Amino acid sequence: MSTPLLSVRDLSKHYTSRGTRLNILQGISFDLGKGEVVGLVGESGSGKTTIGRTVLRLVEPSSGSVRFDGTELTALSASALRRQRPRMQYIFQDPFASLSPRMTIGEILTEGLKIQGIGTARDRLERARSALAQVDLPADAINRYAHEFSGGQRQRIGIARALTLSPEFIVADEPVSALDVSIQAQVINLLRELQQRLGLTMLFISHDLAVVEYICDRVIVLYLGRIMEVAPSADLYARPQHPYTRALLSAIPSPDPDARRNRQILKGDIPSPANPPSGCVFRTRCPSALDACAGTIPQLREVAPGHLKACIRDDLN
């Protein structure tokens, strides 16, 4: 990989609730190259959304480094961070909650431009119309309100809002999970086309591994705030190395109803971040756990070119 656009090192986030420390992220490190789409997958409660929001400083990290195009974001003042905002945008999961019902679509799309002091009022409206065209919505949508649109159209508006500032990096946080299945493919195809045409770098957060396989170049597998596996997408789906990844992949529905799948059912629920297991955080649900897993926190190590896993076992390759 060339010099990364985004470089995250030892990122951690914890909260304290009623005197109890909740470890949401622990020692997260990864890079995103320019123009790369990296998927972030894992069960609910694994910390996916917290990573997305923390790398953009929508949530403040507890510790660690986040460098964007060589600039350390965690060290920036509020005013300096605001100057970086146009280059980094966020697509939210819920298209219903993320758009103000009291603002027209034109006001929603031009709000960021106005805050950044970009262009005249006429210039900002023109950029808003251009962004609507990029997401295949008509220009007259600019004078309407969010409740007048379907869920899929609202998510297109959310994408357009991100595009108005001409960003280089986008965090797409479960961008299709709130949509009907029939609409999901349309929005995913739109994101893929925009990413390729505009050369966007994207962190794509999802629990749907079939969607991730379609759109992502690499995949990061997360469990209880720690990275379990990182690999190029094709390699991960063909040769998963970590027991958790194998369990996730085994749950992907097959288009062939007669196909036999070796479904691996994980027992129990993901543990509480207030009381994570010792050693490997996945060991309490891992079908391949050893006694030694309780006393050792496995570090990411390369098991094939570009393929890393956090597991002490070598006999699972």
UniProtKB/TrEMBL annotation:
SMART domains reported for this sequence: AAA
Molecular function terms from GO: ATP binding; ATP hydrolysis activity
Top-level lineage group: Bacteria
SUPFAM superfamilies noted in UniProt: P-loop containing nucleoside triphosphate hydrolases
NCBIfam families, A to Z: oligo_HPY (TIGR01727)
Family: Belongs to the ABC transporter superfamily.
Name of the molecule in the record: ATP-binding cassette domain-containing protein
Taxonomic source organism: Rhizobium leguminosarum
